[in-house]
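WARN  no MSA supplied for this record, continuing single-sequence
INFO  ligand: zinc ion
INFO  echoing inputs
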Amino acid sequence: MKRGDLLIYLFIIFMLLSSFLIYFFLNRIGGANQRIKSVVVEYKRQVFTEIPLPSEKRTVELKGSWGVLILNLDGYKIRVNPASPHYCPDKICMNQGWISEPPQTIVCLPNRIIIYYRGGAQIDGLTH
Ligand SMILES: [Zn+2]
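INFO  complex generated
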């Protein structure tokens, strides 16, 4: 075996190992987040808005049946801002705090708003 051949073999083995390690690493660390495509906001069972993720830090105003909720977005994290100016009677949506991956959802019954992640084959398969 020539020295050049040995280098090529070593290179191939190195590439195989590193691609396996990267694959393994991404699955462990970013597993759920890698598959999230967007966050969906439903109002009265209709899609009100769909925002691609990850999102920059921003706020979105949602008009519900009871009042206006302020949604905070930061990367893959989502919450209903506890300082939303309009009163939510049960405050369950606000007290829930940040959600960061499926299947976590935020539901505001008084406002008839549902917030959930879209992404991943199994979730898409269920919703259609
Ligand atoms: Zn609420």
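The pocket of zinc ion is lined by residues 88, 90, 92-93, 108, 110-111 (CB under 6 Å).
INFO  checksum written, moving to next record
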